[in-house]
Hints:
rod-shaped; mainly alpha
Amino acid sequence: MASRHGVQRQPPPELVARILGWIRRRLAMRRNRLILRELSDEQLRDIAVSRCGSPELYRRLREE
């Protein structure tokens, strides 16, 4: 970030850590979603998940 005097300021480390954490969580959710998409209906039943219940599962995984 540039200030009025042309000096570059670094964002606070906490902000960078929060952004990186958010990116990691989003990538993990995407990875999980792609894995679940590859499972057959029978495999999903084995782990007590239905295709229509998958969005709820993503939300629960996100909250953990």
